[in-house]
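Table S7 (text form). Paired inputs.
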Amino acid sequence: MANKREENQRRWKCGWDRERLELDRKLKEQLNRNKFDKSSSMINHGDVLKALSRALNKTEYLDIADKMLMENPELALMGSCVLVMLMKGEHVYVMNVGDSRAVLAQKAEPEYWLGKVKQDLERINEETLHDLEGFDVDKFSSIPDLTAFQLSVDHSTNEKEEVQRIKNEHPDDPCAVMNDRVKGSLKPKWNNALLEMFKIDYKGNSPYITCVPSLHLQRLGPQILRIIIRWLSQYLTNEEAVSDVELFITL
């Protein structure tokens, strides 16, 4: 039993080491994709993105968790969402882990607005539309329309790439993704008895849930930026959330 436990602990450690290497690789890919014109050449965007990832490492005490992992392997099964946004001048830097979402709302073409927002609002709730019945149409039609552009990448089973990553890393575990969740048969993961069962059922050399952040650099124009928190993005589309905010601003 002791040998088996040591073997499992070594596998966890190797998994975390691969996470670090994966983070460096993704950071380099982001830098290659995010090249701007000479006006932004004074800013080293790579240093900013790297600073964000280092801040995550220090804030989440990943080094301490690595040291405690040998005695407390359940630490690798815990975590929460992180969404960080930094604005400097005309650039915005976004880092996320999990399915918290950052959405950029920007002005759309004038002719795009009139039918679009009412269509979106119908999907939000009928009560809000009822309140608009006495609204001045001229005033209502002057609202500047906003369209939604998602800046972050959801780390959830709604993303095919994330599901494929988990299945590729755990090919011997048919239960890696169940009920649209990672190890979905164990939804109440805070239950100690079920957590112990999950530890025993662990398969493979890599953690099921990654802590590698997604990094994004976006150049802004005459746009409005808004962070949409996790629970909201589960019930509203990006467009519906932006329309909701747009309406609230004008009331």
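Next pair, protein 2 of 2.
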Amino acid sequence: MEGNKRKSDASSSSGNNNRGEPVVSDDDSLKSPCCYCKSTGLTSIFHVLRADSITVDDFQDLLDRGCRRSGSSLYKPEMDKTCCPSYTIRLRASDFVPSKEQQRVSRRMQRFVDGALDVKKAVEAIEDPSICASAFNEVSSLGTKETSSVTKKEKNMGDHITDSLSEQVDNVIWTCRESGQFPCSVQLPKASVKKVSQAKRKLPVEGAENLMYSSNIAFQIAATIRQAQSIVKDASQSAEDNPLPPKIIAENLAASLDQLAKTNGLSIRACNGHINYYTAATQASSNKDSHIATSSQESATGRKGCSLRNSSMHPKRKRRRLEIRLKRSSFDPEEFALYRRYQINVHNDTPDDVSESLYRKFLVDTPLVPVQPSGDDRVPPCGFGSFHQQYVIDGHLVAVGVIDILPKCLSSNYLFWDPDYAFLSPGKYSALQEIGWVKENEVYCPSLQYYYLGYYIHSCSKMRYKAAYRPSELLCPLRYKWVPFEIAQPLLDKKSYAVLSDSVLLQNGESSQPLVSGNVMEEQDDDNSNNVLIDDE
């Protein structure tokens, strides 16, 4: 076996077909309930292989036939049978164009490293697709007096504040959905926090003079849930299905937002279903010089317990040290402790569910035969194989990416992170770093050009973020051709399983029938020559 491994190493870096024999056994189909569509029947169908060893070249070929790995298990969905077809998605790193949202994620991390963003307490663990669009970093005095003429700069500043507050409310609503306080099946409205007019602040009501912003989102949530329940209501439903009244919803949301409001110089109260923000008293004088921080670039809040402070309040900012370390896959007690915390806090696993043996099985064990650097342009400086990429801030391990580095790509398998750092969007940030890594290492290894994001399920809203890394491609499940996402999307909008390359053929005015027989047979011949079993059919 050692001889085969050495042979595989040499062949993997030479680019020829003398790859060594992979050791793979067929474990047949695996049927289970689906965690994506929540089907309770055995509707999720995958073909599973057990691999004791496999070369990086052969595994690259398997990825390009729709396979993935979890530990030493290789699996592939039976696309025409499974309830939620899973399409392999990839991106050519050199073509990647970051969106405004992705740029904000990078800038937020940079601000955090620069010492502009302070975390006062543990942040509630969320990986929310919507991130605040503006940051709190520029102090502005908002007294009880307001001039009649508002400059354009002041107006923009006010817009940034209300946008950020709205995003914060949305994040808390998302958390409530995940925890079961609101039904997950209902699409809830987006929050809108508005500035209170000068006229309303002059009303003879206690605290009105300090009222700055307000939102009626609790009324909208209650109405939306009530409408959804009225549609599906039948005789078997009881009165227990009545939604919470706006007053209770507002109180719950205000309680969750309280700490975040305080760190930004505001106080928050629920009042008859409304969520109201007030200026907080500063020092012992009066409420005249209450402060809230704002910015036009990005939001560093949006999660409980973080704020961006002005230098006048914190004259000396402590810079942080961010290190990204790449190491071969191996068991690390510190990584396992972080994984346990992540699974228990983010995925609500019980401590008994998160065992060291399962962690080793799925995230440490690997069948990939490692390839060491060759000193030429066939292998990157780190070599090929399975790796753990650690994100360390001031010596504290905050995230770990489980990845495979292969002749053509970096394949992302899993990421776990410290729930206290959820406000930094570690999932998005790590993806951007991995894309950047591919760009940098293509210089050393020209064949290494792609970033594989795993599977994409069009019917699963939680998977949609993967298509935001553009321009991406999906793998056709029949012909194993790569199809641009914008071409595949209309097909997937109509049905979950589609022969994606049909769309390309039709655009080119070609018939799909000859390619079905010819290309599929050609792919089967390639599979046999590599001596790798994909399926029984």
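The first strand starts at residue 23 and ends at 32.
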